[in-house]
Amino acid sequence: MVDIADTAVVRRASINDAAGKRAPTTLASPYGIAFSPLADIPEDPWHTLAERAVEPNGYYLPAWELAVNACARGRTGVSALSAWSGTSSPQDGAARLIGLLPVISMWRDCKIPLPALVSASPYGTLCTPLLDRDVAGDAVGRLLEQARAKGAHAVILRDVSINGAAMKAFREVLGLRGMRPRLLQSHFRACLDARRDADELLRDALGGKKLKELRRQRNRLAEHGAVRFDVARTPDAVAAGIEIFLALEASGWKAKRGTALRQDEGDAGFIRRAAKGLAETGQCEIVTLHAGDTPVAAAIVLRHQDRAFYFKLGIDERFAKFSPGVQLTLDLTRHLCADAVLATADSTASADHPMINPIWRGRLKIGDVLIPLRPNDPVVSLIHAAMAARRLVLDFARNVVHLVRRNSH
Question: What's the CATH class of domain 195-342?
Answer without folding.
Answer: alpha beta
